[in-house]
Amino acid sequence: VVQVLDRLKLSEKRPHFETRQARLQRLFKRKSLNWTDLERNAEYRKTSETLTALQSEWLAHKA
Q1: Those residues with Cβ within 8 angstroms of residue 42's Cβ, 6 or more apart along the chain or in another chain
Q2: What pTM did the predictor assign?
């Protein structure tokens, strides 16, 4: 997840990236982190949907 998000930082404005990065670091430092914390984030959902669509497109072209 972190690697994918790091690749996406190229298209983000720096202050926005730094804010999001700090939020993710706080989440990962918590002992009780679960996927629900990330899934609540609208930006995470949008990124996840985009990556799922790209994966589906890639699999369709591969077949």
Answers
A1: none
A2: 0.39
Do 47 and 5 meet the contact criterion of CB atoms below 8 Å apart? yes
How many CB atoms are closer than 10 A to CB 38?
18
Give the pLDDT score at 13. 65
Contact call for residues 37 and 27 (beta carbons, < 8 A) = yes
Residue 12 has phi, psi (to 5 degrees) of -100, 155
**What amino acid occupies position 25?**
Q
Question: Are 41 and 22 a contacting pair, CB within 8 Å?
Answer: no
Contact 53, 6 (CB under 8 A): no
Distances (CA, A) of 12 to 16, 49, 53, 58, 62: 7, 17, 20, 24, 30
How far apart CA 9 and CA 30 sit, in angstroms, is 23
Please provide the size of the chain in residues: 63
